[in-house]
Amino acid sequence: MTWVTVDKVAQYEDQNVELRGWIANRRSSGKIRFLHLRDGHGVIQCVVMANQVSPEAFELSDRVPYESSVIVRGTVKKEPRSPLGYEISANEVRLIAEAADYPISKKDHGVGFLMDNRHLWIRSSKQNALLKLRSVVTNAARSFFDELGFVSVEAPVLTPTACEGTTSLFEVAYFDRSAYLTQSGQLYGEAAAMALGQICVYGPTFRAEKSKTRRHLTEFWMIEPEMAFWELPETIDLAEKMICRIVEAALEKCSTQLKTLERDTASLEKAVPPFPRITYSRAVEILKEKGVEFNWGDDFGADEEAVLSQSFDKPVFVTHYPADIKAFYMKREPQNPKLALAVDLLAPEGYGEIIGGGQREDSLEMLEHRIAEHGLPREPLEWYLDLRRYGSVPHAGFGLGIERAVTWIAGIHHVRETIAFPRLMDRLYP
Ligand code: 4AD
Ligand code: MG
Fold this sequence. Notes:
alpha+beta; CATH 2.40.50.140; BirA Bifunctional Protein, domain 2; 2 domains; five-stranded mixed β-barrel; binds 4-amino-1,4-dioxobutan-2-aminium adenosine-5'-monophosphate; binds magnesium ion; ATP-binding; aminoacyl-trna synthetase; asparagine-tRNA ligase activity; nucleic acid binding
C-alpha cells in the first residue's frame, strides 16, 4: 500500500492509499463517521461507513479523541464539495496512539494560553500556514543570494561586543568572563566579504529589548548580505530584487497558506519594482504634511513608520538618516557628515521597518573616532579595525528580519506567530 501525503492525493484518484496523521476533527451522521485527518501537508476528510470497515474500526471512528495518531487506508475519491477536491473512502482505520484530552479546542482561547501551548498550537491550520510561509520566505531569500554567487557564511552567536548598541545586549557567563549573544552577524559578515567578495550570513540574532510591542522579539533571524566594493545605491537595488523574489515565491508557492491566513494578496502583488526611495528629510516632511508632530533628528518609532508606510502602496526605502540615531559603523554622507549612508525598508500597510542596512565606514581613523564617540570598548573591536588596516574598500550590506517580513507578507498583527517558538521579554516557555 502506498503511503501518500494529503497534498498529493490528487495523483491517486480511485486508487487505494494509506494516510498517516492525526485526528483534527470528527463527526457522525447515521451509519457514517467522518474523520478529518491532518498530516502536516493538509487536512482530508475520511468517510468511514459501517459496512466497509471492521466493527472495531467503526467503533474507533466513533470515539477517537482529537489529536490521536492514526493510519487510515482507503480509496481516493473526487469530491467537489471538499475544499481539497478529494476525500478518502476508508476501508481501514488503525489507532497508533490515543490522545489525552486535547487542551486546544475550537473555542476562542486567550493568546497567553495559546502561547503556553505553543508546542501544540503550531498544529492548527493558521499557525501551520505561517510556518510554511516562513520556510518559503527563508528559502527564497537564501536561494536568491546563492544564485547570485554569494557565499553563505555563519557568524558566531557568542561575541565579545555589541554591534547594534549596548542597551539591548544579552550578557552570558563565558567561563571566567562575559560574552554577549550576537545582535547581528554584520561585523563578521564584513570580514567575510573582505575574504570572499559577496557573502550572506543567515542566523539567529538577539536583542534584550525591553519593549513589548507587536514587532519585537528578543530572538529573531536575519539574513544579512555584505558586499565588498559596493556602495549604497546598488545595495538598495539588491534589497529591492530580494524582496520581489521573496514575495513572488510566497504568492507562487503559498497560495493555499495565504488563503488560510485570509491575506488580501492584491497588496502583495503591488510589490514590484521600482520601490519609492525617499530621504529621511523627505520622510519628515511627509509626516508633517500628515499632521504628525515630529522633530528632525529623532528616530522614527512604530507610529511614524506606520504613517509613512501607509503613504505608499509599495515598500519604501528611506535613506540618509541622521548619523546620531544610527550605529557606529555607518559611513557618513560626504556632502553632509550629519547624515549616515543608511537605508531602511518600510513595508506597506503600516508594517514599517523590515530591513536595516547601509554603507560601512571604511576609514580607519573615522571608525576609531566613532567607536570612541559611541563609548564602545575598543579592545574587542581591534579585529574589526584590522579590516580597515589591511586593504579597506567601500562596502555595504543590509539585514532582513525574517519574522518582520513574514508578518507583513502574511498580513498578521503580531510578529510572535511567525516563528515556531517565539522568545519575547515575558516569554521563555515552552
Ligand atoms: O536595523 P537593524 O538593527 O540592523 C542591523 O542589525 C544591521 N547590522 C543589519 C546589517 O546591516 N547587516 O536590524 C535589521 C532588521 C530590522 O530591519 C528588523 O527587520 C529586524 O532586523 N529586527 C527585529 N525583528 C524582530 N525583533 C526585533 N527586536 C528586531 N530588531 C531588528
Ligand atoms: Mg533598524
